[in-house]
Structure formats: C-alpha cells, structure tokens
Amino acid sequence: ASDLLWTPSSDVAAAEANLYLPDVGMPVIPTCGNASPAAAAGGGSGYDQHRPKTPPPDLPSLLLDSRIVYLGMPLVPAVTELIVAELLYMQYTDKFKPVYLYINSTGCSRADGEPVGFETEATAIYDTMAYIGNEIHTVGVGVAVGQACMLLSAGTKGKRYMLPHATAMLQQPRVPSTGQRQAVELYIKWKEVLRMKKTYLDILSRTTGHSLDKLDQDMLRPLYMQPKDALAYGIIDKILTKEEKGIDTVKSGNVWDKDAGLVQPQQ
Predict the structure, then answer these.
(1) Do the beta carbons of residue 74 and residue 108 sit within 8 Å?
(2) What is the 3-state secondary structure (H, E, C) of 195-240?
(3) For residues 146 and 214, is the Cβ–Cβ distance under 8 A?
(4) Half-sphere exposure in the Cβ direction for 206 (13 Å, CA)
(5) C-beta of residue 12 within 8 angstroms of C-beta of residue 21
(6) Which of 29, 38, 39, 148 is deepest in the core (most CB within 10 A)?
C-alpha cells in the first residue's frame, strides 16, 4: 500500500496539508490589507501615511530654483531648446535677479572634433542672454570649447568666472558634412560658413576687446587657455574660488519639502 497516493481523511487534514482538492476548496491565506507586512506587524498604516502629494523635486528643478542653468552637453537643438527656455523662464519669474550659467561643453562638436550641431545653436543662446536683460554670471567648469567659450565670454562684464582647473579653447567654426552637392551649392555653403565665422569673431571682439584680425590669427589653430590665460585674454574676469559667490540662495530641505507638498513628520 506504500505506492498508493495519500489523500487527506478530512477537510481539516487537507487545510493543514495546504492541498487543493475540488471538493475541499483552496486554503485561505491571511492578508495584511494595504499596509506593508512590517507596518502591519507594528500597527502602523504603511507607506500611504507618508506618500507625497506631488512628486519630489528633481535635480534640474533644484538648480532652476537657485537660478542655475547648467550647459553640460554639446550644443545640439534639444540642448539649445532647454537652455533658451530656462533663460526665458527666469526672466519671467524675476527680471532683476541674476542668472548663473555653468558651462562644461565642447560647443558645436564632440570631444573628437566631429561637428554635431550648427553654429546657430550658440548664437540662439547668446541672443537670448542679451535679450532677457538679467545679469548673466557665467562659470566655466571642465571645458568650454569653441562656441561654448564664446558663451563663457558673453556673460556680464565683471561676472565671468572659471574654476581653477577648467579649460577654455577657441577654434575655427566647424560645419557638418553636407554630402555630395553641385558646385554652386558648395559655393553658397562656403559663403554661409564665412558669414557665421564673421559673426563668431564679432561677438568675441565685443566680449574680449580684441580686434577681428588678432582673433582670426589666434584661431588659425586651436587656442587652449587655462584660467590665468583666459583671464589675461579677456574671456573671464575672475577665477572662482570658495570665497566668491557663484550661486543664489538655496532653499533648506524643510522648505523644499513644504513647497513640494511632502508630509512633514510629526514631532
């Protein structure tokens, strides 16, 4: 009889064995309600008691609240759209308080020099900086190459900074490949590149005080500048240290929780 299948002798035995039999039914598994097992065991009401009314603030929102714009990617359309929108929003919220533009960008090209965007991405940001009327404090962190270096120099005079180990570099404008075209189209493109280069030099001449000829000669080859070199060249006005203020007042943690609708813990 040892090879026969064992079956429970009663409903109680089936429930104890945790077996499902059609004529006996499924054993009942106890539940803890909406609370987590730990909360149920401790008598609490679970996570719902401390669930925020709105999502917690993300990092860009924290920076935006401190009036910081961080340019940390090459200048492509999506990046330009965000930077311009943030500048316009900050002018809308307060047209008198300064804006802090932190720059760590290779401009309109990648780190290997391959173009990824048009020069107009930089001029769109530059024109918006001039349009909003707020003071623009520019801070170079990491690298500021080409058009990004131009934006670094375009801050309010006296409010242009670099961190001690940042690097700036001026170079000739670069144009993405246009593929095979007719000779007349190449000629038209060549004229447009020269026009963009002249615009680039005009802006740098206004921001640094150098002549167009000097800038043109200096940029025949990449011109790398450490903070002291950029200070002497007129790209920046000061090397930013811990004692220099490069950020607006930051909200405390409790103020952020309150503004975000987070439930304050009971004392």
Answers:
(1) yes
(2) HHHHHHHHHHHHHHCCCHHHHHHHCCCCEEECHHHHHHHCCCCEEC
(3) no
(4) 13
(5) no
(6) 148
Question: Who contacts 35 (Cβ-Cβ below 8 Å, separation ≥6)?
Answer: 44, 45, 46, 47, 48
State the amino acid at position 33 in one-letter form: G
Q: 105: which DSSP letter?
A: E
Q: What is the DSSP string of 71-90?
A: E-S---HHHHHHHHHHHHHH
Residue 63 has what DSSP assignment? H
DSSP H or E segment with residue 169: strand 167-170
pLDDT tens for 148-178 read 999 999 999 999 999 999 999 999 887 666 6
**Confidence grade of residue 84 (pLDDT, cut at 50, 70, 90):** very high
Q: Which helix (H) or strand (E) holds 143?
A: strand 136-145
